[in-house]
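Q: I'm building a small set of examples for a reading group on sequence design. Run inverse folding on the following structure and report the sequence directly after it, with nothing in between.
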């Protein structure tokens, strides 16, 4: 549906070249809710502007529905843009227009007749939960309601792609949760592919099925959200994940542990079915080992349970090795805890 192939973007200001994007390779499948996360200046917004053709790549190709849009004429670009909706961070509503008029604007610009516009706008306002606020002006609406108007406007032309530029960063947590549920519903009921950028890992956790992590203009990690959350391979990704999931031994507990105490200290990772089974209970029953649970946490990512447990196994070497083999066979990922490592 959306592909970026070896894309680079260089801006030049006053003779100074700034490499905003470096060798970007990205594939968003039809039906994905694909999140791109990174700190300010990572290149997220530049990437999004390439997808809606507000910018052109310095090299590489941006491909939508099999066509390289950076080779398109202006007329071809206007046609493809009708298939791309955009939701903005700060709503971008016309303050002098009502909610109805703001949603109707794209249809008016396309020259649709009044009867069609009236029906389509009423349908969209009802869909986003604002059927009774059609004649309200933006300054009469809350932030969440303004964003709902912005979403309805983005859907007016019935696009197959919806781009979201930090769509929830100006909202409070409760309203953010409501907007994310709305985006998920749009993806499911309208079969719209969503590409969103954010700096909030909770957004990725709640609605995205895939994620790419950006740093200094490059994608440093990407994949299915459950895989990236469960086993982040880059330190920057791990830092993002830990804003929503505690998968390491807290410093307070770690500082109280002594290296001279016998036993094996392990970090256990449970994903999906493994998190819902009495694995630790069965281990204690089957093997002559003592299990001391140091810390545990449980989260849900894309309706999949993700659990982490830090334990100390005490006993003879043989039973401990058998117990660890049992955990591996049960689908539990095991990692030794190094008390001297700052990553733990």
């Amino acid at each position: 549906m959306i592909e970026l192939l070896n894309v680079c973007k260089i801006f030049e200001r006053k003779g100074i070249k700034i490499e905003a994007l470096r060798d970007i390779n990205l594939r968003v499948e039809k039906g994905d809710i694909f999140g791109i996360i990174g700190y300010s200046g990572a290149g997220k917004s530049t990437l999004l502007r390439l997808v809606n053709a507000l910018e052109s790549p310095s090299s590489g190709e941006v491909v939508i529905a099999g066509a390289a849009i950076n080779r398109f004429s202006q007329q071809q670009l206007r046609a493809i843009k009708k298939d791309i909706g955009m939701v903005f961070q700060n709503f971008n509503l016309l303050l002098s227009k009502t909610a109805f008029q703001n949603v109707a604007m794209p249809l008016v610009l396309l020259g649709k007749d009044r009867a069609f516009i009236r029906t389509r706008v009423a349908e969209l306002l009802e869909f986003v939960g604002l059927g009774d606020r059609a004649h309200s002006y933006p300054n009469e609406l809350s932030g969440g309601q303004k964003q709902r108007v912005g979403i309805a406007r983005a859907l007016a032309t019935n696009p197959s792609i919806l781009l979201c530029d930090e769509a929830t960063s100006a909202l409070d947590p409760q309203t953010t949760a409501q907007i994310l549920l709305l985006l998920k519903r749009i993806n499911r009921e309208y079969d719209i592919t969503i590409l969103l950028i954010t700096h909030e890992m909770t957004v990725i956790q709640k609605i995205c099925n895939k994620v790419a992590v950006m740093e200094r203009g490059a994608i440093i990690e990407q994949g299915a959200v459950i895989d990236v959350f469960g086993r982040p391979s880059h330190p920057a990704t791990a830092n993002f994940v830990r804003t929503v999931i505690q998968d390491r031994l807290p410093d307070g507990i770690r500082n109280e542990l002594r290296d001279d105490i016998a036993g094996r200290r392990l970090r256990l990772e449970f994903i999906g079915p493994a998190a819902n089974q009495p694995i630790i209970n069965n281990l204690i029953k089957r093997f002559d080992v003592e299990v001391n649970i140091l810390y545990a946490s449980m989260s849900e990512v894309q309706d999949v349970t993700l659990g982490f447990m830090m334990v100390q196994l005490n006993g003879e070497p043989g039973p401990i090795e058998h117990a660890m083999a049992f955990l591996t066979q049960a689908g539990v990922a095991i990692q030794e805890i190094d008390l001297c490592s700052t990553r733990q």
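Residues 251-336 form a domain with the Alpha-Beta Plaits fold (CATH 3.30.70.260).
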